Amino acid sequence: MKKFTCVGDIGDLRAAVAEALEVKRDRFAFTELGKNRTLLMIFFNSSLRTRLSTQKAAMNLGMNVMVLDVNQGAWKLETERGVVMDGDKAEHLLEAIPVMASYCDVIGVRAFAQLSNKAEDYEERIIEQFIRYSGRPVFSMEAATRHPLQSFADLITIEEHKTKERPKVVLTWAPHPKALPQAVPNSFAEWMNATDYEFVITHPEGYELAPEFVGNARVEYDQRKAFEGADFIYAKNWSAYADPNYGKVLSTDRDWTVDAEKMALTNNAFFMHCLPVRRNMIVTDDVIESPQSIVIPEAQNREISAQVVLKRFLEGLE
Ligand code: CP
After folding, report:
1. How far is CA 85 from its chain centroid?
2. Atom of ligand 1 nearest to the CA of 53
3. Which residues surround ligand 1 with Cβ inside 6 Å?
4. pLDDT the model gives residue 113
5. Angle at which helices 93-101 and 125-133 pack, to 10 degrees?
6. What are the residues whose beta carbons fall under 8 Å from the beta carbon of 128, sequence distance 6 or more?
7. N or C: which end of the chain has fewer CB within 10 A?
């Protein structure tokens, strides 16, 4: 594996989940693999789970880890070619990438969508430059359009909790005061569409995701109808994708908040969210604190998904 930015990079999903469960049974079984190897994690945006879980996964494999917060203590980076650099950005990514790559064996990048220009966001300009110019295996720690480490952890979590072969999984939009990227819902949809689960997406009109991510999912605009018989409810906010409203908040309607009344329509569904979550906007206190909430095991599986990806990179290094 040379890169990990989308579901296609992980190959067969059953094999990936089986490997994840093997790693989870003994996460220190491969400590020799990362000896004298260095992971560089580069953050253009904030993180709690991704930062800690990926670092822990690398340490489990015996790797050294370096972390660079681009916006704190590093030179501000210009990411666009052709710009006259007479502003506050002192270094260009095209020099920074090969320099950073020379200090490490594997690179993780977090670079969110800016939400001002859809074409630029969906071209994935930052992580694509790392893939192109670093000469190192590169993985996404959430890019503009996808969050594959999260989706892989979500899949592992569903596989661990499902009580039937083909569960009904519902991705529901929920309100949030600020504009958020589509990366998590896009990615979750991409991974769910790669399974044989029954997969439904529900959101208010105007919040349609890009068709390539919706895939074969059933889109249901009536949230209560979507919840009927569901085995897993996956809540997430996202901003509008469709033009002319790209990146905008069209609604903060709390009738879309996941609450106990709506969860009662489900097949005693498990509640999932990638975190961080805004309580009583996305989900009520009682639902997220209920026995059916699996947000903590879901976050714990971030260590496992990261470890599988890093392990595969290390196995492929010469
Ligand atoms: N779910 C997730 O990626 O969390 P962080 O933004 O805290 O890394």
Report:
1. 32
2. 8
3. 47-50, 142, 150, 274-276
4. 98
5. 50
6. none
7. C
